[in-house]
Amino acid sequence: MSMDRSSRICMRTTLKLANSIMLLAGIAILMYSVWIIVVCLRDYQKHHFPWFLWVCIGTGAIFCFTAFIGHIAVARRNNCLLSLYILAVFLLLLAEILVTADVFLNDDWDKDFPKDPTHRFDDFVDFADDNEKVFSFLAILLLFSQVVSFILAMILRTMHHNHRSFLEDEHDDQIPVGAPYVLGHPQYPPETHVHGAGDALLEKDSYKPHQEKGVWSMFGGGGTAGYPPIHP
After folding, report:
1. Is the pTM of this model over 0.70?
2. Is 114 helix (H, G, I), strand (E, B) or coil?
3. pLDDT, tens digit, for every residue of 8-17?
4. How far is CA 26 from CA 33, 128, 200, 223, in A?
5. Read out DSSP for 127-156?
6. Closest CA to 69 of 5, 140, 16, 7
7. Which residues contact 108 (CB under 8 A, 6 or more apart)?
């Protein structure tokens, strides 16, 4: 096994592990969304579902969908899916950085969000404040896994492209003479005429008149090529 192949396998495995963290985070957010739906249906029947619920459902779905694309792109080694995955992770990182900067730099950050009549958002903020160390660790772990996934996906995409170009160039340089239809172009040795079915029929038809003329000349006909005239 070459060093290039082993490094690609190692990076694919690391990307899958880092991508699994985002998948688990998305599943956890979706499970929390289901719990909010149950609570709202039980205690807040007069109110519509809060905006916080839809944000949680959308965030969890995006995390799961992005992780799903990443796993397929790595398994199939598809550069198009890798490009889509890189774009999705970049947008997620950008949104997370903007929200984090707004929370830490703005003292009245909670006023930037609409009011929640069910107070589910306020309960979540209080719970996060009570468990600040745990949430900080989870947030850093998620951010770190996304950064690692983004970097590895870009490296793998570049390596796949370079490896494919190298194979195509090497294949073009080593096309054997006489190999038919390599890369869509028939290859024949120089100064070689390729006989087909039409040539065989042509040779067969051209041979019959000569043969008939030769036989006719044996009975007194005119001489033809290859057959001398017969005189009585």
Report:
1. no
2. coil
3. 888 889 999 9
4. 11, 18, 69, 95
5. HHHHTHHHHHHHHHHHHHHHHHHHHHHHHH
6. 16
7. none
